[in-house]
Amino acid sequence: MNLLVSDAVQKPELFHWNGTIDRALLRNWLREENLNVPDDLADFWAETGGGDFFESETILGPFGDQRLGDDVKSATASYRERGLSPRLMLFHVGVTRTAIEQSTLRYVSLNERYEPAESFASFNEWYYSIRQPFAETYGLTKLAVVR
């Protein structure tokens, strides 16, 4: 079960998604852009299209609004100009930034120099790591440690 989607069902006012994406369209876009993503991120994108949550966090979408910097392609390009490695694809911005390491498909949080700081094996493990500071503030159900 996707913890982020579960939280969105519990507290829908905190989550604003871009809308579903047809899986064939998503696969074609990934192939055309020569990008690799873990299956759980692809599933999340297909279900939500990415979007905003907790007032400060954005999961960039394949077809997010480029004018707002909410799309994967332009946001990743912008961060590459600031030092993000070509082996990383940015997918989350907010209080922290998170990318997908293209060769390992690991989720990696980035430090202030846009270098990998911490690594996560799954979307749920990554989300759990950023969810903790917000859980009490927003009255989200307490969860056991996810690994």
Q: Using the 3D structure, state the CATH architecture.
A: 3-Layer(aba) Sandwich
Strand adjacency order, main sheet = 1-2-3-4-5-6-7
CATH topology: SMI1/KNR4-like
- Could you report the average pLDDT, rounded to the nearest whole number? 92
Determine Rg (CA atoms, Å). 14 Å
Please tell me what the overall shape is. globular
CATH class: Alpha Beta
Q: Number of helical segments? A: 5
Strand content: 15-25%
Total beta strands? 7
Compute the separation of the termini in Å.
Answer: 13 Å
Derived from helix and strand composition plus strand pairing, the structural class reads: alpha+beta
Please name the fourth-level CATH homologous superfamily: SMI1/KNR4-like
Q: Give the helices and strands as they follow along the chain.
A: HEHHEEHEEEEH
Task: Please outline the major beta sheet.
Answer: 7 strands, antiparallel
Q: Give unreliable regions as ranges.
A: none
Indicate how many domains the architecture comprises.
1
What level of helicity do the residues show? 25-40%
Model description:
The protein is of the alpha+beta class and 147 residues long. The protein has a seven-stranded antiparallel β-sheet. The chain has a single domain, classed as SMI1/KNR4-like, CATH 3.40.1580.10. The mean pLDDT is 92.
Which features would summarize this protein structure in a list?
147 residues; globular
Topology at a glance:
Layout: H1 3-10, E1 15-17, H2 23-33, H3 39-48, E2 51-53, E3 57-59, H4 72-81, E4 88-93, E5 97-101, E6 107-110, E7 116-120, H5 123-138
Q: Brief description of this entry?
A:
The chain is an alpha+beta fold and 147 residues long. 37% of the residues lie in helices and 20% in strands. The protein contains 5 helices and 7 strands; from the N terminus they run H-E-H-H-E-E-H-E-E-E-E-H.
